[in-house]
Amino acid sequence: MDIITRVILSMTLLVALSLGIRMATGKVRHSNLLATKGLTFERTLIVSMLGPFLALEIIYPRLLSEVAYLPLSVWINQLGALLVLVAVLIRIWSQMTLKSQWAADLSLDKEHSLITTGPYSLVRHPMYTSYLPAAIGFLLSTSNLLIGVLAILYLGVSLIRIPDEERFLLDAFGDKYRQYQRKTPRRVFPGF
What we know:
Four Helix Bundle (Hemerythrin (Met), subunit A), 0% strand, elongated, mainly alpha
């Protein structure tokens, strides 16, 4: 793994670690990593396995079994790192747009409002949008099948959560959310 790929993946881990620390210390409201509502426990379990494997891959490339590796060229690794960077930027943009309204579980405070600006004007669930380039990027940048499978599994479990989140937002915001659904018909990927 080249230095550019390592730097991008390291930055990704730092962003994820920062978010995890904020959640663990209660700086993000309603973050309950063991909540069953919205598959939060499953997502937490997958990402808690993915993080250490990714860190290990950055520090000691190919320490894991050689069987788990794809023979990819350096430019494919760099393309994967670029996809991860795009994913991180989408995630940061989404997080900054939501500000304190973001929660790991499906919950709202009295002060919550429906966010329809920024990336939320393009798709209804842009954080989930970021998981596709991240999953593909982790696989391509590390050439590691285990990391790729965990990232794709995280994407799949997150996408399964969308109908629950849609129902939750409909219950919370009613007609306002229905109007938003009509205006922003794409749940996750623009053009699909």
